[in-house]
Amino acid sequence: MPEKSGITLNRAAQDVVLERQRQVSAEGYSLYRDDGYVKGELSEAGATYASLAGNPGALSTQWPWGRRHSNRALTADATLSKPQR
Questions:
Q1: How many domains are there within the chain?
Q2: SS3 8
Q3: Are 11 and 1 in contact (CB under 8 A)?
């Protein structure tokens, strides 16, 4: 975490922040890019993560960007839906 804000994050929240930082630095994602999703894609992706939490390697037909973008997102730990520790 680059800055200290006085807010203490639990491990699950830290994992979410670290994943977003990875997306920005390694994959070139940005808030500008996020603003281009106007048909509920990000909400649908979040719901998909939640539905697959605890089932690593599972796939879903609900992933808004199809199989070509599902490798990391759906075969990892579902970083955005990890239970709090």
A1: 1
A2: coil
A3: no
Q: What is the pTM of this model?
A: 0.58
pLDDT in tens, 43-61: 988 888 888 888 877 777 7
Report DSSP state, residue 39: S
Residues 21 and 29: their CA atoms lie apart, in Å, by 9
CA distance 81 to 39: 22
C-alpha span between 71 and 16 (Å, rounded): 18
* Cβ contact 17:79 at 8 Å: no
Residues of the domain holding 49: 11-79
